[in-house]
Amino acid sequence: MDHPALHGHSHEHHTSASGESHGGYGAYGIGFALSVVLTVAAFYPVMVPGTLPHGWLEPTLAVLAIVQIVVHLMFFLHMSTASEQRWNVVAFGFAILVVFILIVGSLFIMHSMAEGMVDPDVPAVPTTGHSDMGSMKGM
Predict the structure, then answer these.
(1) With 80 as the cut, is the pLDDT of residue 90 above it?
(2) Are 52 and 60 contacting, i.e. CB atoms less than 8 angstroms apart?
């Protein structure tokens, strides 16, 4: 017997102390269905070659990933543009900024390190046949 009075709340519509909505089973069901559809839509062109024209796979996957993120934010993390959610949105934006800085910084460092690497076509030891050992004979 699952009665709201037994555990203090109903499962139909969740509301936090500040009043923002946390949706019910219907919202979670819609979010889950959208997530499954978006996952299949991204998985299919990868697994079945020739589904998309040449050069469209990566942009399509990027767009589907962004839409998937938005669906998760809205239906599972309950982020919205409501005034009660302002600090959550600010914290999320700051987290995105930190991740962006980490990724761009890492790519910059890897690129700089790659430019500073020795060319594999140039030998590290001179191959002229002369050695500096002759000057050390007198020692």
Answers:
(1) yes
(2) yes
